[in-house]
Structures are given as C-alpha cells and as structure tokens.
Amino acid sequence: MQAFRVTSQRRAELYHWFTALFATPLSEDDLGEFGGYDMHRFLDSLATLDPLTEAAEAFRGEAEKALQHTAPHTRLSGHYQALLEAPSLLDTASLNEASQDALLLMTVLLKQHGTELADDDPLHVCNQLEMMGTLALAAADSTIEEQRLQLLDQQRELANSQLIGWLPVFVELCRKRDAGGFYAAAASLLLSVFVMDLHYLNNVAE
Question: What pLDDT, on the 0 to 100 scale, is given for residue 189?
Fold first, then answer.
C-alpha cells in the first residue's frame, strides 16, 4: 500500500506540473525556476527512467535555450499565445472527437472534484490533465479499498477514452505552431509520461 501511495503521489505531481505548464503563460518567476537546482533535479529524476530519458533531456535543452534569449519571458509568452490561435490547441474538441460517454465522465468528475482553472470546460486540455492528477492524489489518500479501486477505474477510463485520443495530435500540432521549441518539447515529454502511465494503469495498478 505504501508503494501505491508513493507512486500515486508522484503521478499526481507530474500531471499537476504539466497542467501548470500549459494552463497559462509562464511568469518571470516561473521561468527563472527552469534554470534552478530543483528543476534540474526534477528532470534528472525523469531522465533516469528509460522511456523518458530522450524526452526529458530534449525538454531540458529547450528550456536552457529559451533562458539564453535576451527577453525570454516575452518570447515564450508569444510562443504560448500561438498555441491559443483558433482553433486553440487547449480545446480537445479541436484535436479529437470525444464520445458522449467520455464527455459525461469528465462533466461528472468536474462536479465531484472541481478544478483549479478558471475555465471549467470538460474538454479543456488542462482540466483533463489536472483531473488525472486529482484522481491519483485522491487514490493515494484513500484508506478504503473500494474507493481506491473506483478512483483507479476513473483514471483508466479518462486516460483510455480521452487523453489517448487527443494527446498525440496535441504533440504534433505543438511542433507545428511552436516556433521556439519549448512547448513542443514539453508536449513530447507529456506524451512520454502519459504512455508510461497508461501502461501502469492498464497493466500494473490494482
């Protein structure tokens, strides 16, 4: 049980990190953290996992490159805005057609758990990422086996009915729209994390 709790907390941390990365443009303080010790240690921890090594190092390289520009905050803000040009890449409706069952699932989950984002659209990329983290954290904290299993099932359903459909398209379109490479690399890292997490949910977690 302790191993499950630690793994779930780590998974939640990752999903919430990606949520914050894509939800709004990075502030100057946020950007400054990318050159700090904690961020390098975080990326080191991801790079030690074989499925994530290449994507983690590519993201580290893009972050370091972004910090070298004269006005990195202004430049990255512009690149972020390019992701929002119509059709917005943060709207999963523009990436993949969701089934009514999948839409209902997210709607119910948002009513049960809420969202930290201003936009409570169930088809918003960041709401779905945040929900994966929220469910993982709730499972980690649960002491009731039936509840824990239900939370795992909800994560599996959300991952298999929603994220698996739009994430590869999201990554590809980020590569086309992001002139700098920072957000494209972040999206690629997200996909690598998700593929590893999907294997965990479908084959390991119980």
Answer: 98
Tokens found for residue 77: 């803000």
Residues 45-85: tens digit of each pLDDT:
999 999 999 999 999 999 999 999 889 999 999 999 999 99
- Farthest CA pair distance, the chain: 54
- pTM, 2 dp: 0.96
Residue with tokens 């904290």: 141
Task: Using alpha carbons, list the distances in angstroms from residue 195 to 8, 56, 76, 163, 164.
Answer: 16, 14, 27, 10, 8
pLDDT for res 32: 86
Quote the DSSP letter at residue 91.
B
Nearest to 197, CA basis, from 55, 8, 48, 54: 8
**CB–CB of 125/161 below 8 Å?**
no
**pLDDT average, residue stretch 84-96:** 95
Contact 139/8 with Cβ under 8 angstroms? yes
Q: Are 196 and 51 in contact (CB under 8 A)?
A: yes
CB 125 within 8 A of CB 92: yes
- Which stretch, 29-38, 45-54, 109-118, has highest mean pLDDT? 45-54
Question: In sequence order, what are the residues at sequence separation of 6 or more whose Cβ sits closer than 8 angstroms to the Cβ of residue 182?
Answer: 62, 63, 65, 66, 76, 79
Name residue 116's amino acid.
E
